[in-house]
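GatB/YqeY domain-containing protein
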Amino acid sequence: MSEVKTAIRADLKEAMKAKDTLVTGTLRMLLSAIQTEETSGTAHALTDDEFLKVVAREVKKRGEAAELFETNGRPELAHQERAEADVMSRYLPTQLGDDEVAALADEAVAQVRAELGAEPTVRNMGQVMKVATAKAAGAADGKRLSAAVKARLG
């Protein structure tokens, strides 16, 4: 079993003992999403990177739902979604700052430049993003990373 999954199960056990309904419910939802991912397609044990992708996806879902609730005049539901996202965010790596994302984008562009032997253009965005995403390893949101790469390419 993965270290991340083990940590989530241990935290769930502690939350249940403390009768913390928010954390208990959120961690159960997260474990359910992880189990769904493990059993979809060919059943397999997820790596730590795959766990982080599932957690990041769930956090993103909560953030989008909170925005929708805010725009539709339901602040109490938006607060609940944000609280769940905060609980799940504990299992994500520390997010990179803007300067670090910019440096990561510069490294990715330089690596693709070395591979191509020429200056990469917007047409090479996919190649650069593949390198940048691998280097970020879940520590940067795809939207922020994409914007930084796009700024360097054109």
